[in-house]
Amino acid sequence: MKILQVHNIYKGKTGEETVVEEEKKILDRHGHCVIQFIKDNSDLDKYSKLDKIKILSSLHSSKSIGKELEEFIEKEKPDICHVHNTFPLITPIVYEVCKSKNVPVVQTLHNYKMVCTNSLLFRNGEVCEKCLNKSLYNSIKFKCYRNSYFATAAQAHVIQYHRNKGTWDNLIDRYVCLTEFQKEKVFGDTLKDKVVVKPNFLAENNLVTVREDFFLFVGRLNDSKGLQDLLYLFRRNTHSKFILIGKSDNPEIFRDFKNVKHLGERNRDVVLENMRKCKAVIFPSKYYEGMPMVILEAFSLKKPVISRNRGAMASMINDGVNGLKYEIESGLIDAINKMEENSALVNQLGERAYLDYKENYTEEKGYENLINLYAEVLSSRSLV
């Protein structure tokens, strides 16, 4: 099978790029041919002001990209196209081109872009669903995208334009949601026959797991990722040990906590070395998330996760089975104390977390899900 991957890379590598590459590797390894149509937002730094204006004026459909992709498809003749992200350089013209070339399209939703201009359903430090089942133009007054009326209007126009045109309903053969929660939020009762839930997957690293006396946080240290919860915890818990890995705009705030070690941004090897040793992983994100790879890493290393009971985490964490969930800040303290006081519970949760990884998130399971999805889409097309 020949699979065309389409992806617009953000500035700075994200989990989406990891997913694209992991899917390519596993398909290549099983003898399929994977070709890529990739654009990188970092290239925008090289563009002139005039070029940037042209891009803004064609966000809903780039004719130059359409021509380039059309020639690429004619040359490569893929069996199926798997789209991950089109904003802002590729644009949704990819769907029109594939339709014209009779190439079926699978679209993975890594976030909530179809129903939210900032893609997070999160604004001013809180979950926001004001645009769900409503016009995306409602978001302009809140400056949801990059705190700009103009940028938000541009994003809203793209999404609303294609919603009104029927692009989302008619030109995409299958949508892939990462969790049942995401499927419900984005689609509700619509397009049921076109939406499947397929979680991300992760290669097993076969590291030796131990359980030392510290809790680990991995991620950007800002309010949306639960920074205030962590600070609340650190002010009231001076006996447990915590290691933080991730970028912080204000790293000085951690210096007064003697039991907190902030390592800053580190590569994956350092993350895995700390994760294989920690007692548990803390994931206090305040927004819904897509499918956090940090949680998959934790599960693969037999580490339970303490998370906020929200969004993707609510679907992935089974309270008291593979981790602990909390509702408010004080609940995070209670969860930490519960693990500190019961090492047998921590081991039990960790073993079940690993079992969940083996059942749902391995490379083998990921490949099975992918190839079954592609086969089903191609089969449905042949019957039309």
TrEMBL record:
Entry GO MF terms: glycosyltransferase activity
Domain named Glycosyl transferase family: residues: 211-354
Taxonomy, superkingdom: Bacteria
InterPro entries: Glyco_trans_1, Glycosyltransferase_grp1
A Pfam family per the record: Glycos_transf_1
Protein name as it appears in the record: Glycosyl transferase family 1 domain-containing protein
Lineage of producing organism: Bacteria, Pseudomonadati, Bacteroidota, Cytophagia, Cytophagales
